Amino acid sequence: MARIGYARVSTLDQDLDIQLARLRAEGCGIVRSEKVSGGSRQGRHELATVIEFLRDGDELVVTRLDRLGRDTRDVLNLVHEVEQRGAFVTVLDPHITTRGEMGHVMLTVLGMVAQMERRFIKERQREGIERAKASGIYKGGKRRLDRERIIKLRDAGKGPAAIAREVGCSRMHVYRVFREGG
């Protein structure tokens, strides 16, 4: 029986250290992490790897439920996949485990709260952007990728996969920069 930790933050500039330290302190022998949005499962390759790796009796450990996902259906589907492998999920804060039925109920409720929180965040963000646009101070989001560097690497003969590895982004982002930059 293995305790396998999974840590996630949404953006490249966020820090995983607190989650990683907590998971190791909780006895997770293996900890996988990634910097990708939890809004969907798309692009969450480390999570897919963890789920594939789970065996009967193993435990998937996350620090908070929103590290698994922010959509109730997605979280419940993840829990179902984990259980199909004979494993279970443990959330550290608040402490909930799917070993018993009450854990399933609590995960469902917390998943709904996380989804509602995500909607509220998006709504507040949209309202803030609209106010900033109306007052003429909105300049758009800051660019997180060095687009000039990506184009220079392409011009130097590097392929999209190599550029993505070097810059620290997905190939999809590289292709998007190619389309935007010509």
Automatic annotation (TrEMBL):
Belongs to the site-specific recombinase resolvase family. It holds the Pfam family Resolvase. Residues 2-136 form the Resolvase/invertase-type recombinase catalytic domain. The active site is at residue 10. Gene3D superfamilies: Homeodomain-like, Resolvase, N-terminal catalytic domain. Keywords: DNA integration, DNA recombination, DNA-binding. This is Recombinase family protein. It comes from Tardiphaga alba. PROSITE patterns: RECOMBINASES_1 (PS00397), RECOMBINASES_2 (PS00398), RECOMBINASES_3 (PS51736). PANTHER family: DNA-INVERTASE FROM LAMBDOID PROPHAGE (PTHR30461), RESOLVASE HOMOLOG YNEB (PTHR30461:SF26). The lineage of its organism: Bacteria, Pseudomonadati, Pseudomonadota, Alphaproteobacteria, Hyphomicrobiales.
